[in-house]
Amino acid sequence: MALSEAEGLLRIAAADLETAVASTDPTVFREGAWGFWLQQAVEKALKAWLLHLGEGELPLELERTAFNQRVNALVLHVEQLLQPPSAPPQA
């Protein structure tokens, strides 16, 4: 049985996610390396979802640069959410 395009993208997304996790070691990789692979995983997973919903081609209005900008904004937002809370001011 042949994989659908959406299933193929999900498999690639899973591999990209594994690479993101593996690249969190700062002694081996630059700090931003994991972010690149995370963005790749999210992009492919979202495209797979859109393909699954539409059961066909991605919408033409989903221009790659705009899509990547949205994904990058999402990653930045998640990074902000994951920041440890700042210490309360000393009295």
Structure notes:
The chain is mostly helical. It has three helices and no strands. Helix 1 runs antiparallel to helix 2 (33-54) and helix 2 (33-54) packs across helix 3. The longest helix has 22 residues, at 33-54.
Count of DSSP H/I helices: 3
- DSSP strand content: under 5%
Mean pLDDT: 77
Cα-to-Cα separation, first versus last residue = 67 Å
Shape: extended
Radius of gyration over C-alpha positions, nearest whole angstrom? 17 Å
Order of helices and strands: HHH
Number of strands: 0
Helix content: 55-70%
Structural category: mainly alpha
The biggest sheet, with number of strands, parallel, antiparallel or mixed sense and barrel status, is: none
Unreliable spans are none
Summary keywords:
91 residues, mainly alpha
Topology at a glance:
Blueprint: H1 5-22, H2 33-54, H3 64-82
Quick rundown:
The chain has 91 residues and is mainly alpha-helical.
